[in-house]
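Ticket #4471: structure export looks truncated?
Reporter: QA, pipeline team
Priority: medium

Steps to reproduce: submit the single chain below to the structure queue and open the exported record.
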Amino acid sequence: MDTTPADVSTGLTQAQVSERVAAGKTNAFVADTSRSAWSIVRANVFTLFNGIVFACFFVLFLVGRWQDALFGLAAFANAIIGCVQEFRAKSALDRLALMNAPRALVLRDGEEAEIAPGDVVLDDVLVLRAGEQVPADARVVTARGLQIDESMLTGESDPVEKQPGDDALSGAVVVAGEGTATATRVGADSYANHFAGEAKRFSLVSSELRTSVNRVLKWVSWIIGPVGLLVLNAQIIVLGGYTTVFSNGAWVQAVVNTIASLTAMIPLGLVLMTSIAFAVGASRLARRQVLVNELPAVEGLARVDMVCLDKTGTLTVGEIGFDETHPLDGLTSEQAENAATALAWYAASPDANATARSLRAAYPVVTPVVVEGYIPFSSARKWSAVSFIGGSGTWVMGAPEMVFGDAATSSDTELGRTVTALAETGRRTLVLGYTESSLSDADVDSERLPNALQAIIVLTFREQVRPDAAQTLAYFGRQQVGIRIISGDNPRTVAAIAREVGLDVTEGFDARELPDDDAQLADVLDRHTVFGRVTPEQKKRMVTALQSHGHTVAMTGDGVNDALAIKAADIGIAMNSGSPATKAVARLVLLDGQFSHLPDVVAEGRQVIANIERVSMLFLNKTVYATLLAIIFGAFLLEFPFLPRQLSITDGLTIGIPAFFLALMPNAARYVPGFLRRSLSFAIPSGIVVALGLTWYTFIARGLGVHEEQLRTGATVILAVVGIWILAVLARPLNRFKVAVVGAMFIFLIAVFTIPLAREFFVLVDPGEDLAVALTGITILMVAAIEIVRFAHRRLVLTVPTRDAPRATTSSSTVPVSSSGPVATVITTVVAVLAYVFGALATGFGILVFLGRYDPDVSASAFSLTGAAIALFGLLVFAVAAGVRRGSGLSRLMLTIFLGIAIALSAVVLVFGDRWDWGAALTVAFAAAIIVLLWIPPASRTFGRILESSMGSGRP
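Actual output as written to the record:
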């Protein structure tokens, strides 16, 4: 290949371009894809549990038992949602493109040509003009006032003046002047694409919820095979043995029973509910202009205890703003007027930089002037000078120390004292000087300052701080979240910005002095808050060092220089004004650039974690009791007491559907590590209660000699009622919405047990009077045991000082009831105890009446529905009783309503029954006594206002 360098005056020839293209030395860059579509599908569809569930699903279809295959729908939905979630993340990463310039200007065969950035080849001569983006790493050949903004790459907010021989980095933007440069690194070798390659490495955000659920699935995977064989063996033996079942077709029922036990063990709904909660949280944040690139990030920020902020574009809007004019002594009114004209010209000049342009609002052009002599600004000189036709004298604007030397920093001069005092506030200072002599041609050619220059005005500039930055940082301070500001700018400037947004810092730490050892770096980060002159690689190291000290780190930024740190952080947050690279690798993007949205994200994450923790107890409870039932029934050679379809309906109405609502309810509980431990500490003992209760019931049913359909019906009734009870227990503290959810699920269950078509589909029959009495007693004992488990769980596991977020208001209902006197305290305690007793007795009485629904007599069926309603309101009374002891006005109102309905229903049984029913009479008496005690003084004065109270303590 011809490696002859290009003639800078003509550029490469077409032949040279073709040879470089053939050799692959082009700027085209296609990084390895973040993750292949096949790997995403494989990870979400071809899993061990999906394999088990789908296999069971198709087996039931093959044996003609499609009615029992409802559980497969949850598995299909979970796989689809998981794939969609990861495809969204993949799409965002694959759209990563640092080179977003629409064109690149190159010199070829002596002529300028516009080409796509990817068509640039090695040694191309690039034409650089204001507004152009540098398409590839290059070395400057010619320059005329060439200034390049590299802030997106290096974090330096000031444009850099480039001279021949300097490097220009790909992705940088030309902000002033013009020049040419020769491409030295293209494609994957370029500086910008180096970041892209690092950033595009796929990694899922750390999620305690996902990790915990996966751990449970792993545990279940270890035992599901042996347990399945144990259950299958038991079912075959129960149904007649291996020889008989295959000759009479009973093996089908053995397979169905085994599938029922296995699918019940897998908490597939928990995976689905977690995905739904993430998706809904992301949707809510989208309405607040927060884009979630990866759904578990909704949870992540709730766990963050350290937020790292890039100054430019995050705390500030990334633009310099004019602050104030500071006249010096001796300034005359005429000089002030002429100075305003000079500043207006500087602000409006065609080559004005960002600092000069910020003067336009304060100094608009009023009197047009014509330039006689002009020395343009140079970042090397850091000053510019101008003299006008018809006006005597020269005006010089620039950095004080570059224009006036030591006098600009000396305490002996007014200029020095003024500049020093202003600089200590973190503001950028410029000085406007004046001399009566005009610029000569020699002055312009040699770019020298005129003589007898006098400082007349000091100008201050500051970066525009985001108006929402201070309140957002104050919020994190109240939440005990640490803040680290890391920027590529001057440490003093960064510290001043930090003080402006409310942080208590004295000075910034110069990152050039950071230790190379990671452990020492972490110690420095623990001691200091503000860091300046930080390189992109150092930002990533700092994030990693904080993580090594146990911090969960969020990183915010907008420049390419932030991309690696944002990718390394637990939660990366980008501003929408930032580079495409930064936005694509970030977990969250603030679309409107409002820093104040971060508290919304924290609140959404807390809601997801707290609600999924509550929901997980429902699902894990099911996994525990299903696993124990499978082992117990397999070991004792008992026929499994459920059909898969019966488990589907109880799971759906006591776990799946209500869990969906619970997972989306407001919840501001603070995050506390240990999600899985807390969930299992309730799920395991409550699951043991359910498993032992159903086993006890099965032995009683076998002793009574009932047939299999009666046994399954009774087991389904027990599981439904106890499941509703567990739902009510975990839904506390109750409110109107939760009461409605619990009540609706019970009504749906009553419909399933009552509507003839549903009874037939779910194979529900009359369990008989003896079995009805037995299962009612067992149900009451199981409910009492669940209450004991929850009481111990709350006292021994959930008693964490920071568990609950502070409430915004304190209502009168939160005043201790003892403040109304010992008599009122005794009465409310007695009422609460009576409510618990009534709830348990009414539930049992209602179940007994309810089980008469299979009697062909129409009146008996009507009475059974009345009994079901009594059981429902007995459950609800028990559920709201806890709020009475705390003086909740809402609890008193709802308890009164439920008791009144129970009285009415019991009266129906007494009036229309064919014999006196002592259970109904006791229900009426009990309920009436509780209502009287609730509303008579002095107890009535202990309750708060209804609209300002809740029905629980605030813990899940």
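Status: closed, not a bug. The export was complete when the record was re-opened. Leaving a note from the reviewer for reference: Confidence is low (pLDDT under 50) at residues 96-102, 800-819, 854-860, 948-956.
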